[in-house]
Structures are given as C-alpha cells and as structure tokens.
Amino acid sequence: SSDSGGHVPLYLACKAGHEEVAVLLLAASCRVSPATSRGHTPLYAASYFGHAKIVSSLLAAGASVDRRTQSGATALYAACANGHVDVAVALLAGGAQPDCAVQHGVTPLWIAAKHCHLELVNLLIAAGARVDRPNEAGVDPLSIACHEGHVAAVRMLI
C-alpha cells in the first residue's frame, strides 16, 4: 500500500531512519526499489537523510544503486549534497558510479565541492570522479569551489 505520493511503508521507514522496521520489511520480501511519484526510492531517501546502515541493508537486498529520480539525482548525489560520508562510502562500495550527473550536469563531486564537504571530495576523487567535468553551464568542481571561496576544496581539486 502507498499514500497519495506513492510513499510505501519501506520508503517511510528508510526516510525516518527506522533501521529495524526497514530490515523487517525487507525480510518480509517488500519490493526494495519502489519509487514515489517523484522517482524517489527507499535507497534515495535513506541516502538523503544519512542512514548508512539502512543503505547497506537496501544494497544487500538488491536495491538499484544508480537509479535516478525525475530530476536525475542518484542516491550518491543525495548523500554528497548533504555531507553523508558514511553513506557515500557504502554506495561506492555497492557499485555507485561517481560521475552520475543530475539535470544540468551537476555531479556528486561538483556538489560536494560547492558545499566544501572535504571528505566527500577526497572520497570521490579516489573513486575516479572526474575533477574536470563541468556542468551544462561550463562550471567544473574547481571553479565552483573557487567561486564559493573554499580554499581547502580548491587545494584538493588542483
């Protein structure tokens, strides 16, 4: 069952960080990757809100690691936009592609550099993210870090 926005019980448990509930639902063979009307999956919700243990459980149950929302965002992008290093580590270990871009060409590295999430910048570079990949406006991660005045991120990106 789901509400009017397509939020199924597993999605709600993952979004709220209720690990034990999510594990029970997964054990009861709930579909692991149902999407809301906006294309958000339980994995995306858990990643966005920083619930690393739930992310690992979902990946172990077969969640699609690079599934995109309507705006093109992946779980890795959500984790990087919100500074969730432990979630990003789990997603990359689960096979997430470090350069999956959302609409307008913004990558996880670009958004991590914009917000000066230094551990994520380092992690994504180590995972093979392209430091020279620009968004659709031609702005690359180094340029956005410079624009925002993030000296430490600039050091990592040059």
Automatic annotation (TrEMBL):
SUPFAM superfamilies: Ankyrin repeat. ANK repeats lie at residues 5-37, 38-70, 71-103, 104-136. It holds the Pfam family Ank. It comes from the Eukaryota. GO terms for biological process: innate immune response. SMART domains: ANK. Keywords: ANK repeat, Repeat. GO terms for cellular component: cytoplasm. InterPro entries: Ankyrin-KH/SAM_domain (IPR051631), Ankyrin_rpt (IPR002110), Ankyrin_rpt-contain_sf (IPR036770). This is Ankyrin repeat protein. It comes from Emiliania huxleyi. The lineage of its organism: Eukaryota, Haptista, Haptophyta, Prymnesiophyceae, Isochrysidales.
